[in-house]
Each structure stands twice: as structure tokens, then as C-alpha cells.
From TrEMBL:
It is an enzyme of class 5 (isomerase). Keywords: Chaperone, Cytoplasm, Isomerase, Rotamase. It comes from Zobellella aerophila. This is Peptidyl-prolyl cis-trans isomerase. PROSITE patterns: FKBP_PPIASE. It catalyses: [protein]-peptidylproline (omega=180) = [protein]-peptidylproline (omega=0).
Length: 160
């Protein structure tokens, strides 16, 4: 079965920066799953998956506009330290997770005080050209429930 709208794709990935350094990978972990055609994946990655099938492995290099977006200058905010998730002690340059109206988002600590922190709201990889090594493990038709919910269920997907 080929990847098309309303299919659930399970895959492994390795994300590399401009110099080939590995930024992130799910090697040795459970595969990821997403519902194709429902805006659950970065635009460029979803386009790259279209038409692929189980067993396909490929590499795609994408510009910022198709992944985490361009960097926005001055895209900063002051937030209470108690809202930063991921560590007990914070320092400038560290990456934290914060809960927003759109869900969790990664931020970079610019300056931290006793109660407040200045954070860069750009994703840490915004503005970078990224290379994805992708391996399609399985492709199946989505269930009616998955389509109604707008996301994949089961291993690598959403669990209710």
C-alpha cells in the first residue's frame, strides 16, 4: 500500500543538521506513527512520504519553510520559571518545554532570574536546512475513528 491521505504511517527517522551532525533520532525506540493528510507532520516531510510504501528508506533535505520555519527576530517572551518543564535549574542556552494554548512548545532560555525567565519562542532548529533519513515500517488504511479524531492511534500514535 502506498502512502496517501487517510493512511497511517509507522516510521523511523534520523534528523541531521547542515554539517551532518545527528540532532535527533528514534533509533532503539518505538517507531513513530502519523495520519497522512491531516497536518500531523511537517509539510516537507509529509510531501516526501507521499507515494512511498512499506520498506522504503530515503533521505530528504528540506529548507526551514518546510520544517520548523524561519527564525523570527525578537520572538521572545518573559515567563514565570515555574512554567518551564525539563530541568530543576535553568541556565541561558538550555532548551525548555512550556505549555501554550497550541500545546507544548520548545523554547530556548535567554536569561533566567529567580522567578522569571526570558525565552526565545523560535524552535531551536528554526531557520536551519535539515536532512531527514526516513524508513517506512508500515502503511495501513486509517480507521474511521482515526480519521474523525484527525490522528493515528496505537503504537507510535495517540493513546486516549
Amino acid at each position: 500500500m502506498q502512502i496517501a491521505d487517510n493512511t497511517v504511517v509507522q516510521f523511523n527517522y534520523r534528523l541531521k543538521g547542515e554539517n551532518g551532525e545527528v540532532l535527533e533520532s528514534n533509533a532503539g525506540q518505538a517507531p513513530l506513527a502519523y495520519l497522512h493528510g491531516h497536518n500531523n507532520m511537517m509539510v516537507g516531510v509529509e510531501k516526501a512520504f507521499a507515494g512511498k510504501a512499506e520498506g522504503d528508506s530515503f533521505t530528504v533535505t528540506l529548507p526551514p519553510a518546510e520544517t520548523y520555519g524561519e527564525r523570527k527576530e525578537g520572538f521572545t517572551q518573559r515567563i514565570p520559571v515555574k512554567h518551564l518543564l525539563g530541568a530543576k535549574r535553568w541556565q541561558a542556552g538550555m532548551t525548555a518545554v512550556v505549555q501554550s494554548e497550541q500545546g507544548q512548545r520548545q523554547v530556548t532560555i535567554l536569561k533566567v532570574g529567580k522567578f522569571m525567565a526570558d525565552v526565545d519562542l523560535n524552535h531551536p532548529w528554526a531557520g536551519r536546512t535539515l536532512t531527514f533519513d526516513l524508513e517506512v515500517l508500515s502503511v495501513r488504511a486509517a480507521s474511521e475513528e482515526e480519521i474523525a479524531h484527525g490522528h493515528a492511534h496505537g503504537e507510535g500514535g495517540h493513546h486516549h
